[in-house]
Fold this protein.
Amino acid sequence: MALDADAVRREPNHLGATPVYLPAPQQTLTGGRTTRDGIVLAYLDNVRGRAAIYTKLDVTANNM
């Protein structure tokens, strides 16, 4: 989940979290790590290992 830090400060009771990754029916999340600039997720897609890197720009773009 992604949170807007400014919005959390303004309204801590209404977080407005945004999902960063929603797996498709054939996918399973297997792990994740945070970095200075984003998140690295590992997942299985039809039993094949995959990885994805999400940055703040990716999360913002997904909300449009």
Strands lie at 27-34, 38-45, 48-55. The longest helix spans residues 56-62.
